[in-house]
Amino acid sequence: xxxxxxxxxxxxxxxxxxxxxxxxxxxxxxxxxxxxxxxxxxxxxxxxxxxxxxxxxxxxxxxxxxxxxxxxxxxxxxxxxxxxxxxxxxxxxxxxxxxxxxxxxxxxxxxxxxxxxxxxxxxxxxxxxxxxxxxxxxxxxxxxxxxxxxxxxxxxxxxxxxxxxxxxxxxxxxxxxxxxxxxxxxxxxxxxxxxxxxxxxxxxxxxxxxxxxxxxxxxxxxxxxxxxxxxxxxxxxxxxxxxxxxxxxxxxxxxxxxxxxxxxxxxxxxx
Length: 271
Fold this sequence. Notes:
The protein is mainly alpha-helical. The chain has helices spanning 83-103, 105-110, 115-139, 150-158, 181-207, 211-231, 239-246, 248-266, and strands at 15-16, 23-24, 143-148, 171-176. α1 (83-103) crosses α3 and α6 packs antiparallel against α8 (248-266). The chain is globular, with a radius of gyration of 21 Å. Mean pLDDT is 83; it is low at 41-78.
């Protein structure tokens, strides 16, 4: 079994952390040796020193990466997600895709082959949103893993039955570590930003496509609009909280764009 921290196969029994539930080798079995997020992460004393932060360039980059020679939060996985994270992301994706299908239900009933288009598109929309959060957080030296939320899962599933409202937030990328408002705000907005771009592309494709195919693309655009607008809610654990705290203007622009994407997707003749 691979160590969740270093990714190496080592002899001897694996050790399961009583706090985070992951398995580690003998060298990293203690919480302080694998930066266990359940016991304080980087704030816990006794960790190895992190490499010196590189000096800022004269020209401030548009996305402020806090780089270091070695970050205790950059765990190595066999893939993009850890074993525990993969279970959560699979469950959340299944529920989200189910709700997405309710948006294009009449289209796929008329032409079942369109499932080959909409299902992968819904998966890309959701996973793209979460992976953008995760990668940007990790590049800033933060620990980031996706976790489902029971209430979020239930509310998302119920929205399969609601024709005019879609709550698409079965979980979120949990981030541990310290970061400035700007860093956390950019990490927060990159997910909805992905959905706005993907949704806009789908809307343009809908305008260029005939009949049912165009309706399928409109459904994808609406789906991305709901993903963006729900995540931009400015309270709780939603992305909108960190974005609003960082820059209210950018938050307002993102929210307005999300609303317009849903409106134009629902009423394409307005454009």
